[in-house]
Amino acid sequence: MKKKKLMLIEIEKIPEEIDTLQSKEVNSLEYVYLSKLYNEGNEQILIVTFYSLEEKNAVFRVFFNHKTFITEFLLPEHRWSESTLNTLIDCWHGSDVAIPTNQHTEKQIRKFFSSTDNSYEAMQKFQRDLRKAQMDRRHKRETDVIDEKMKPVGSLPKNFETWLNEVALNFSRYIYYKRKTNRIIKGYCTSCSGQVEFIITKETPQLNVRHNQPGKCPTCNKKVTFKAVGRTTRQYDTATAAYMQKTDTGFLIRYFSVQKKYHEHYWKPEFSFSELVRAFYDNNSVVRYEYTYFRNTHKIRWCYANNIYNLDVACLYTRNIQQVLADTDLKYSCIYELAKNTDKFNINRYIYAYRYYPAYEYLVKLRLYRLVAGNTSYSSNSNGYSLNGNGIQQVLGINRLQLKQMQRLNGSGNHLSLIKNAGDVGVSLKDAHLELFMKWRINHYRLASVLRYVTPKKIIKYINQNMAYWEKNKDKYSFQSPASDFVDHWDDYLQNCVLLGYDMKSSFILFPRDLKLRHDEVMNLVKAEKKELLDNAISSLFEPLYTHFYFAWRGMLIRPPTSADEIITEGHKLHHCVGTGSYIENMAKDRCYIFFIRNAKHPDKPFFTVAFQNGRVLQCRGKLNCAMTNEVKSFIKKWQKKIGGTAHEKQELFF
């Protein structure tokens, strides 16, 4: 159908029946329609014109042939549309909103479409069927491409289900037990599928067979969790697993969701797994597919990914990794070593990170598996270490002894952060102390602050002495662990003691009997004389900081502030937030130093402000929070060489 020819067809006059139809008691009636046939060569066209009862004029007309249709809008302005009647007229009340003007129209439309339905429904059905056929053709073009992509996907290895049970679900091991007497406990181990018995004697009082407590099976020697029969009716464990497969143009990673359910019949758990994601890696590009509903249909099949499933962090099948990656750019990526020594990691992010930051390969070779698995990310700076550094110690920012400790513990990003923060205050933590602080989930910055005055051994002793109160009142403070809350309050107390000029070598000051009471007392004292205390603290820092950090070069100089008021003025004139209380307090409490960069010709005019902590430049900002100019960057580098510091500007921090 050609639009130019269709436009020339005369519009049917408004039917005389419109007044009669309008007088009918049909509240929802808005349109009437009139049909006629038009022959264009060998093609027969049905023209259905719709008239508005309100405007008493032709509003639009629809041209049908046996293959397609098109709508011509006549009012309020002329235009063409491919919208269906469902869109143009209320789809729920269509047959009530629009009716034929006479029986001739009704019969003509039904005959044209060979339909037994009423005329309006016959037009709707034709349009629906046509749209569905068009959609099916579009979908087929898309699914044919996907199906072609899926052809190389082979079968899974024979031992895959066993591997899922033993490795991907290695945490899903339980001993369901019953106490026969006070000393005899009998149970069933789901790991070795056998009966077990525990006899508690004077020689084995340490056996802790309690509900939901960890332990070991005496038969298979595997780690298990104890479950009291009767107390646990349902246990639902899930895991994500991945399998690599070679393709003609690269490789494929298949992701699986794994489930294991224990009910009353715990000796017969329900095990199942389903493949939900496939990621094809070809020439440094990746295309992902998901097994889900295809577009707006009810068909479940492989589709282009829409990030419905979050399965990237997975346990990776290791037996074929080296063979799959042998001829790819990931041949030396150490994915095999990482997968072999970690329960799970983000595979896709590791691949991306390895290609852009080769330092990840060296971290794996150093056996820092937990650090890599926990911190693989798209960022060029993750958890305080620089992936662009030269040499592994520069990458991690630690010395050789600290690196050896990380290797011994297979340290995570949190281990690294705690080691570095303790090292910044000159403390080397023993392995046992480090692991205990990690278990307590203590804030690393707070702990390092306390370590300025107290040894790790005394910190642990003091925490243990006070844990009863903090365990009892943990809901009053925060969602953190009681030990972490305790150290937070202790650090606040100690820093306020410094501001008040107390003797920080006195055990009476360092270890108050009632920390909560003393914390509140010194807080009230500081509030009462805060401004004077802050001014005195910052003024007392000026001379030693000036002696060590003052530097002038090429018309610029850098110096410390003389008072809290000067820091406030700096923030106001440069329009950044260095003048807020947090920066002033941190400097007064010796946590972070503020320095001013000045033009030598105008030494009193604010130019750039530097935040400096633990030998590192955290940030350097000018007016309206602007970044450093090239001249300022060169000046900072020269200054750092002079004082022996390092650049470590974090772009997410702003004054």
Furnish the topology, listing elements before pairings.
Blueprint: H1 3-8, H2 18-22, E1 31-40, E2 43-52, E3 57-64, E4 69-73, E5 79-81, H3 85-88, H4 94-97, E6 98-100, H5 103-112, H6 119-150, H7 160-168, E7 174-179, E8 184-189, E9 194-199, E10 214-216, E11 223-228, E12 235-247, E13 250-262, E14 270-282, E15 285-293, E16 300-304, E17 313-316, H8 321-324, H9 335-341, E18 345-346, H10 347-356, H11 359-365, H12 369-375, E19 381-382, E20 385-386, H13 392-396, H14 400-409, H15 413-424, H16 431-440, H17 444-451, H18 456-472, H19 482-499, H20 507-510, H21 515-528, H22 530-549, E21 551-553, E22 556-559, H23 564-574, H24 581-588, E23 593-599, E24 608-613, E25 616-621, H25 630-643, E26 646-647
Parallel strand pairs: 1-6, 7-11, 12-17, 25-26
Antiparallel strand pairs: 1-2, 2-3, 3-4, 4-5, 7-8, 8-9, 10-11, 12-13, 13-14, 14-15, 15-16, 17-18, 19-20, 21-22, 22-23, 23-24, 24-25
Write up what this structure looks like.
The protein has 655 residues and is of the alpha+beta class. Among the domains are: 3-132, no CATH class; 161-232, no CATH class; 464-528, no CATH class; 532-647, Aminopeptidase, CATH 3.40.630. It is built from 25 helices and 26 strands. A seven-stranded mixed beta sheet has the order 16-15-14-13-12-17-18. Strands 5-4-3-2-1-6 form a six-stranded mixed beta sheet. It has a six-stranded mixed beta sheet with strand order 21-22-23-24-25-26, sandwiched between helices. α17 (444-451) packs across α19, α18 crosses α19 and α19 packs parallel to α21. The longest helix has 32 residues, at 119-150. Mean pLDDT is 87; it is low at 646-655.
